[in-house]
From TrEMBL:
<keyword id="KW-0597">Phosphoprotein</keyword>
<feature type="modified residue" description="4-aspartylphosphate">
    <location>
        <position position="55"/>
    </location>
</feature>
<dbReference type="GO" id="GO:0003677">
    <property type="term" value="F:DNA binding"/>
</dbReference>
<dbReference type="InterPro" id="IPR011006">
    <property type="entry name" value="CheY-like_superfamily"/>
</dbReference>
<dbReference type="Pfam" id="PF00072">
    <property type="entry name" value="Response_reg"/>
</dbReference>
<dbReference type="InterPro" id="IPR046947">
    <property type="entry name" value="LytR-like"/>
</dbReference>
<dbReference type="InterPro" id="IPR007492">
    <property type="entry name" value="LytTR_DNA-bd_dom"/>
</dbReference>
<dbReference type="GO" id="GO:0000156">
    <property type="term" value="F:phosphorelay response regulator activity"/>
</dbReference>
<dbReference type="Pfam" id="PF04397">
    <property type="entry name" value="LytTR"/>
</dbReference>
<feature type="domain" description="HTH LytTR-type">
    <location>
        <begin position="159"/>
        <end position="253"/>
    </location>
</feature>
<protein>
    <submittedName>
        <fullName>Response regulator transcription factor</fullName>
    </submittedName>
</protein>
<dbReference type="InterPro" id="IPR001789">
    <property type="entry name" value="Sig_transdc_resp-reg_receiver"/>
</dbReference>
<feature type="domain" description="Response regulatory">
    <location>
        <begin position="2"/>
        <end position="115"/>
    </location>
</feature>
Amino acid sequence: MHVVLIEDEAAAADGLMALLARYDPAIQVIERLDSVEDAVLWFAHNPPPRLVLLDVQLADGLCFDIFPQVSIRCPIIFTTAYDQYAIRAFQVTSIDYLLKPIAYADLHRALEKLRLLTTDYSPPAVNLHQLAQVFQQMQKAYKTRFLARFNDRIQFKTTEEIAFFCADGKFVHLVGLDQRRFLVDYTLEQLEGLLDPRQFFRLSRKYIVSLTAVKEIRIYTGGRLRVLLLPTPLTEVIISRERVAEFKAWLDH
């Protein structure tokens, strides 16, 4: 089976090639591309392969920019690092997808589905323009810095400097990686919509934490987890059993 791999991250492309070889050593990746421009040129001058593995966000834009310029008449499995909201868009349009980091079981499922397809493939009737809009909306700019107050002084704190946010009664504190504490004029609910979910996670009613601040995770009673942060917060940080799976998925993303 001939496969074209369109992925702008070399490590991700290497990982996919290893997974493909594990599934079937006879699979041949006949071309590796990393941009919309290169993909358009390749498909304009080559017959379609059996399968395309296509990353959503490429070096020079979204992969959906390819389709108005050239016809790709073969099955496509999208790969994406976006969250479950984007995944729902794929499910609505019945397009296969792999959510990064890609697990072998997920690739195996997608390739088994491909194996059941007939040789004469007709692309599904999907609204690629609508899908492109979904991903463009998800590329909104998250806040990268916050105004923070300490007594009568106001400072800018970038998200790279933040360990976690914690709620204390009516106040929300920004705690830096340098252990300094500041007040911010946001609720945790407002912060959830302003922070990049790849970098920050709502651990509980009181804490939103940066990935860089997670020092250790311990098994706790009742199927819960205890999260040790650096710097150490004033109270224990416990993740409820209902949020454990989501937290693990965030860590593994």
